[in-house]
Hints:
The chain is mainly alpha-helical. It contains ten helices and no strands.
Amino acid sequence: MVRIAFSERPGRHERHFIRKLDNVLFPRPIQDFSDEDLLDVQRMDHEELLVFLQSLRQLVGKAATLKPNEETEVILDLKSELEKHYEQACGLTDNQSANKQAIAQLIDVIMATVQRNAAGDSLAEQELAEESLARKTHFALLESPLVADLLHPQSVIEADELSAVLLTDPEDFVRPALELFDIDQRRLLTEDMQALLDSHGLKDAGMRERLNWLRTAG
């Protein structure tokens, strides 16, 4: 029987669906599913994409109508919205490279205006440089789908699923995500992971290796 195929570039709902497939570490694993179950999460991702694209078009329209002497507050509000949309784009289905590039370029244009207005104010220039570096770092972290999933305002990852996610998501997704947690949070998480593995009696070498890596990463 031919089943519905998984997406080549899944969105956050389908990604989490896939994470839970036959994964006993999750408190609510998916051990069997129908085509309709998969279609449901794919549909949610597609609807989220359509809403995003409409919102992005509106933002681009606002940017196009900015006056040369626009108030700083208006400019900064638009920049903030663009940053949120970049963050959201990183978790969406399909290839969002073009949209992300367009958003980043718009932010650069806006920041160039802000920097011109701050010319000669050494403190303001320093703050803008620090903000630019922080944004670059943040956007780099968002290349991990896990980071995008965790930072989404309505994250699909429940608190009691986090240990399972960190133990089983690809290492190159998890490594950037660790930057979201401080030392104490990481310690508590690895304690939870140890308890989770012990509760299932899992002696899997790969899992234990991942746990040891998580204890020392950072």
